């Protein structure tokens, strides 16, 4: 029976379309990493909701600006869609340099999570963002702060970000 083969077991988490890190669903893995780095659960949900909207939590994602007749890639790369010609590769603090110093590839999930944490620890602008996120009173505020102060998305799809945040908060019991 094909259906029985795809049911979740303790060893095989149900395939929800999201990657799994260890045995934890990816969004919870990222949230845990962020809270371990000093962000509040509310802030972590706001961040992960934005990352889901940007990349569907796939660290290998490249922005696609056109699908037909062939794919044309834009400047965005990774979980947060850091832009080529900016925070991805040319800014003083950039993902490529960060990954190189660690001896990892830029597509590595933990490298990208650590880069977000690094930016929020050493970059003056993003240190302020971290402080604002940690003072956010609810997930909507945290989601909007990360969108407007860190992501600065061209096409924000705000309703998607807020829905992802609400869904995660409800599963997390917040």
Low-confidence parts lasting 5 or more residues at pLDDT below 50? 1-20
Q: Estimate the strand proportion.
A: 5-15%
Rg, please? 17 Å
Taken from the alpha-carbon principal axes, the silhouette is globular
Written overview of the protein:
The chain is built from 8 helices and 5 strands; from the N terminus they run H-E-E-H-H-E-E-E-H-H-H-H-H. With 174 residues, the chain is mainly alpha-helical. The strands form 2 sheets. The protein has a 3-stranded antiparallel sheet, with no helix packed on it. A hairpin with a 5-residue loop joins strand 3 and strand 4 (72-77). The N and C termini lie far apart (38 Å). Mean pLDDT is 85; it is low at 1-20.
Summarize the structure.
53% of the residues lie in helices and 10% in strands. The chain is built from eight helices and five strands. The strands form two sheets. Strands 3-4-5 form a three-stranded antiparallel sheet, with no helix packed on it. The chain has a two-stranded antiparallel sheet with strand order 1-2.
Descriptive terms for the model:
174 residues; mainly alpha; 3-stranded antiparallel beta sheet; two-stranded antiparallel ribbon; 5 strands; 10% strand
Give the topology.
Layout: H1 2-6, E1 20-21, E2 24-25, H2 26-36, H3 41-55, E3 62-66, E4 72-77, E5 82-83, H4 95-102, H5 109-122, H6 124-135, H7 139-151, H8 158-172
């Amino acid at each position: 029976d094909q259906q029985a083969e795809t049911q979740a077991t303790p060893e095989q988490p149900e395939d929800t379309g999201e990657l799994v890190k260890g045995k934890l669903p990816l969004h919870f893995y990222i949230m845990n990493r962020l809270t371990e780095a000093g962000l509040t659960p509310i802030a972590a949900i706001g961040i992960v909701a934005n990352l889901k909207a940007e990349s569907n939590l796939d660290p290998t994602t490249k922005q696609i600006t056109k699908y037909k007749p062939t794919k044309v890639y834009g400047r965005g790369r990774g979980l947060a869609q850091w832009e080529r010609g900016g925070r991805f590769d040319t800014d003083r603090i950039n993902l490529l340099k960060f990954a190189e110093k660690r001896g990892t590839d830029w597509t590595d999930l933990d490298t990208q999570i650590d880069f977000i944490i690094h930016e929020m620890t050493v970059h003056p602008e993003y240190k302020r963002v971290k402080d604002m996120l940690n003072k956010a009173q609810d997930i909507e505020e945290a989601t909007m702060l990360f969108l407007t102060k860190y992501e600065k998305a061209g096409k924000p799809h705000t309703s998607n970000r807020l829905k992802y945040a609400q869904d995660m908060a409800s599963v997390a019991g917040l």
